[in-house]
Amino acid sequence: MSASAEAVGRRANDTDSxxxxxxxxxxxxxxxxLLFYGYTITRINHPQxxxxxxxxxxxxxxxxxxxxxxxxxxxxxxxxRSLRLGAQRASVRLLAATLALGILFLAIKCYExxxxxxxxxxxxxxxAVSGRLAGGERLFFFMYFVMTGAHAIHLTVGLGVLSVxxxxxxxxxxxxxxxxxxxxxxLYWALVDTVWIFxxxxxxxxxxx
Amino acid sequence: xxxxxxxxxxxxxxxxxxxxxxDGLFWALTGVCGFVTIGITLTIAYFCFRxxxxxxxxxxxxxxxxxxxxxxxxxxxxxxxxxxxxxxxxGWGARLYYIYDDPxxxxxxxxxxxxQWMWKVEHSNGRREINExxxxxxxxxxxxxxSQDVIHDFYVPAFREKRDVLPGRYxxxxxxxTLRGVYPLRCDEYCxxxxxxxxxxxxxxxxxDYGRWLASGSEEPTLARLGFDRFRELGCSGCHGPSSTLHxxxxxxxxGRMVPLADGTFVRFDEAYIRDKILQPAKQIPAGxxxxxxxxxxxxxxxxxLELTAFLRSLAxxxxxxxxxxxxx
Amino acid sequence: MSTAxxxxxxxxxxxxxxxxxxxxxxxxxxxxHKRIAILYGVTITAFFFxxxxxxxxxxxxxxxxxxxxxxxxxxxxxxxxxxVIMVWFFLIPxxxxxxxxFLIPLMVGAKDVALPRVNLLSxxxxxxxxxxxxxxxxAGGIDTGWTFYTPYSTRFSQTQVIYGLVGVFVTGxxxxxxxxxxxxxxxxLRAPGLTWFRLPLFVWAIYxxxxxxxxxxxxxxxxxLLLAMQRVFGLGIFDATLGGDPVLFQHMFWFYSHPxxxxxxxPAMGVASEVITCFARKPVFGYRTMAYAIAAIAAFGFMVWGxxxxxxxxxLYASLVFSFLSYIVAIPSAIKVFNWTATLYKGSIxxxxxxxxxxxxxxLFLIGGLTGLYLASLGMDVDLSRTxxxxxxxxxxxxxxxxxxxxxxxxxxWPKITGKLYSESGxxxxxxxxxxxxxxxxxxxxxxxxxxxxxxYFEYSxxxxxxxxxxxxxxxxxxxxxxxxxxxxxxxxxxxxRAPDNPWGAKGLxxxxxxxxxxxxxxxxxxxxxxxxxxxxxxxxxxxx
Lengths: 209, 329, 545
What we know:
The complex is a heterotrimer of chains A (209), B (329) and C (545).
Chain A: H1 14-45, H2 47-54, H3 59-84, H4 88-118, H5 134-171, H6 180-204
Chain B: H1 2-9, H2 17-50, H3 64-100, E1 108-115, E2 118-122, E3 128-130, E4 132-136, E5 141-147, E6 152-156, E7 161-165, E8 171-175, E9 181-187, E10 199-205, H4 207-216, H5 223-233, H6 236-240, E11 258-260, E12 266-268, H7 271-279, H8 302-314
Parallel strand pairs in B: 1-5, 4-10
Antiparallel strand pairs in B: 1-2, 2-3, 5-8, 6-7, 6-9, 9-10, 11-12
Helix pairs in contact in B: 2-3, 5-8
Chain C: H1 2-6, H2 24-28, H3 33-61, H4 72-108, H5 116-138, H6 152-156, H7 161-188, H8 201-233, H9 246-280, H10 287-301, H11 316-344, H12 353-376, H13 378-384, H14 388-418, H15 424-450, H16 465-495, H17 537-544
Helix pairs in contact in C: 3-4, 3-5, 3-16, 4-7, 4-8, 4-9, 4-14, 5-7, 7-8, 8-9, 8-10, 9-10, 9-11, 9-12, 9-14, 10-11, 11-12, 12-14, 12-15, 14-15, 15-16
């Protein structure tokens, strides 16, 4: 058995995980891609209804959230970089900031959902809009809830990952030499952020006079 | 016995010129594919026999470089030859599809509504039938079809044609039967429990028989007549009528024509467009007109749209002055 | 090796992956790709026989044009169960997750897949999805057809559609994990010197399949999610009453499900290339072309989904493009058939069971592929789509193609996997019975389709009866054919004679290790051949004399 030397093929290493994560991200892009495709086709069929319905979304909350999330992307990138450069405490602080911004995003999103429900923008049940474009507007809000919901679920998963990273870096599990996990988390967080870059204009900015 | 075999192994009758064309393609495909299947199978069998282990034959492989060159050449041949055949079959099929997809303007329109699990047919004079379709021979027929529930598919094997019947949309299937007879009609999109019982019969009859058949049950007012009534009741005539002061187009003589749209494209003024304009008027605005028309979504039934469409059809050959309804029986 | 020579006093049976723990727990917590392959193998075998039972009942019912055994509702549930189970719980995982899992690390000279824990997780996710399907069956089944077309599936079906959707949705994640694992493994864990063009075609095929799995499966997951929401909440973008589009669902569904056909058939092509070269003792004809053909099929496979909607109200121009691309994707498949045939030329051919299955695969795949040309041709498809012609066509591809190839691979690598030999005569007999039964079952269905019998028909006009009886008779032979391997392979696993390390004299890396392989796959580094399939028919003849 001694002959089962290490040379026979190696175990997976960090680079392998990174390749794996990129492939996973490609898969995620297809996942959201289908939603964008569904949105596009439905919008082509109902241009006016989508423009009108988009005006019912809360531009202020959506924009604040965009700002919050983009900022969190910055702090996340800096956190990964700090760790790689050996600044463990800075990394912990930046990770905490990212986590806080992520939670803030979710809180604002929840409040926005609350406002939407209050103003009867939930497409099933008693819908605020009636008249000739009501059907199309319902479809808009259906896509609005599905897409932001799918995004929020991904963000929540990201928050879980970030918490593990935060504890890991604080305890010294992840260090300058062992920063792979944090960098992969940053990559995933970038995906969550990128999805919002696309969601924000197509949901909030369709037609603003 | 001979007859029994024929009944089991024969193509269904080809009742339209189009069906004959499809059969032409079918036999061409079958000829080529059959030849290839037999050819390759025999080649494999021959190689398996000749080069089975233990036979004293030359097995010397060419050296690597010349082998590569030779295999490139051979492969090029068996890429290009199939490709040539594929182009032929693509073009041939596309030509047939073009016919299938483009009903002639003078086709006789018959309205079909599918629901679980029956075919409801309505002729232009209001005569209705269920699970049966009577059509005159030697005349292009155009079925304008929609579904009240799930997706169905109108399939007549003798015409070698089918088209899905969708909810919320009109689809068209056209054919010109040249062979009188009785042909089965089948639903060919799975539609629930009794899908396999959603069958019917198509009767292709002489023009005279068809006329008599049509007249025998036409006590009811024609579809177009009913459509004219709807046209007034729903207030369409308020804008599209003669005394209208609003800037709305007259609809006389429009049916079947291409109309220019505000975005520079053209659309045919047909069943689908009429339906869209009634339900989603903002979608395709005609050039030169404002987006003023209200949607009738929720105010009109499937039946209303059918009748309105029949009315507008009946105006196809009138001068573009005013829809009056005077020309109607 | 040196220690083995130095200590000849310890000839105890060498430990291998099978002797590495005997408890159920050791199996359920294993991260060994070889054991996970066996877990998958057992699971999909169970599903194969459940799906097969459904098919058998359907064929029994169809002996008569009028009801004899069941109601229309039951029949509809049976063909749905058959489709869902066979597609997602047998065919898609069949070759990739069993043979692929077992062989990819061996063929690239690695100890395991890149992410062994993800690999185990994928099996659990698969089993969880399978549980949902079993629950669906127990709760009464689904009657939507495996295609779940809306609005029937969302508003009209009275059955447990949601459970079924959840089952398929969950299983999708196992596909993604498996695919991801293989891609990373092939990219990163190849042994030094094992360049891309030294890889066996099986690895190429699984690699291409994995890319489809990773990119197409999420589309299916999201589509089914949208469908489930429409069913639960009563509205969605496929809802015609709100101005949504039910055909949009078909586009989304086939965007996954057409590439899924290639998920099923590419690995089969890989297996055929391994087996045919081995038993012809000849290098594969046109190795590079074969590899490029695999890549081309995977790429073009993503662009032909619209050929399922030629009669669904798709625009003329969309149909033209999809028809054209469908012909283009047929070219690489045609190349593969020609090259397999050419591989036999000047070989030194023997006809062990794996070779019989592989030759059967080539013949049946040929017919399946050629009948695809009918359906790619627009005018012809308008007549034949959704008839029994289509049923016959895709069964020739999926059963005649994929299942035959799966059996070829299973028999080829069985000695490697289990370290046991199976009955040669029994296995040859089974291959022939399956081939005959298959053709008798499905060839009459081509004629039924041409004569205009729609698929999914519970009752049919009496003049279709003769061919239906023929088909059902074939199905009973086919069923018997499938039970035979279950018997002799089980017997072989329990009581079979010990297999040598390389019983076929095959050239792949996997044959350089012991049968069954040790836990870490290789005792000594495998030697990497200059080129794959380095067989020499003349030498093989010499060796025999």
